[in-house]
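Task: sequence in, structure out. Protein: Glutathione S-transferase family protein.
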Amino acid sequence: MIKLYWSPRSRSFSAIWLLEESGLPYERVPTDISTGAQKSADFLKINPMGKVPALTDGDAQLAEAAAICAYIADRYPETKLAPAATDPKRARYLQWLFFSPSCIEPALIQLFTKLEVPTSTAAWGSAAQVFDVLDAELQKGPWILGDQFSAADIAIGAGLNFAVRVFKMVPSRPSFEAYIGRCVARPAFQRAEKIAAGGSA
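Result:
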């Protein structure tokens, strides 16, 4: 049985959305970060960083939301959440799956802290560049891989929803609103929102 270690109103959202999209049976294991449960010795064996989400699946254990997306999509190909390794779309899928943690999240931190980082040394370039590139890609739609919804959309969609609609850190653009709207309309997204808010789907 897949076990997802999570906490309400946290970065667990994308992992919950992923598992709801997958249709796989899984157990949600509440991990109360307000009491420091993520720093317990047992939890640190799963994720030494002491962060949620984390996941176990039999003997497999891992953390990091994008890694969880990649693992579930590959371990359970019947979910159709990733192109096959031999599919040419696989390259773009991987690029966009990891765009969220490697570009969107650092760009948001840069905006939040008002940190000045030279674009020549910042791996993500600049916050403006990140969202300009994403805007251009999303105008192609409807999903990152065209007509195929994938785990990359979960990583990008969750991050963009928080950045634009929830925390209003990034000014909206027509492509962002349309894309977020398509994500929010998915039943699995709606179930995940209820769960992540502390309820049940």
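DSSP finds nine helices and four strands in the chain.
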